Fold:
Amino acid sequence: MGFSELEENKPVSGVRDKIAVKNTRALTGCRQKEPIVKRLILESRPAMANTAVTVVHMEGELDTATAPEFESKLQELLNQRRYKIVLNMKSLVYVSSDGIGVLTSVIKKVRENRGDIKMTHVHPDVYDVFQLLELPKLFRILKIEEEGVRDF
Structure:
């Protein structure tokens, strides 16, 4: 039995402000193909306490397959002149170097426009990676969303 190719990185849903990415692979030597689904769901809204701040709730994994959608979401916010951003990472369980690359590539434009990106509810495993890469020197990381909003 040979290795068959499946479509990778194909959007699962077109729901506005929600992005789910389907990433599948075929297993060799098996009768049945077992899909591996990776997804990142992004929901954005103005903060209640300060409508100049946009809160982006992140759920899932931020990796090679989902980083382009995350970059697209951030670019959409920049196009709307939303430069004060709080990333609520409460349900984000994994971040790869591709996800970190998106963050570091966007921060300069955000700050040139007197904005910032703050992170809240960072999972301990994700925070360990951030510390290793010295991201707390570049981004403000706070415990809860309300602190991130107030910090503006």
Remarks:
- The radius of gyration is 17 Å.
- Helices lie at 67-79, 97-112, 124-132, 145-150.
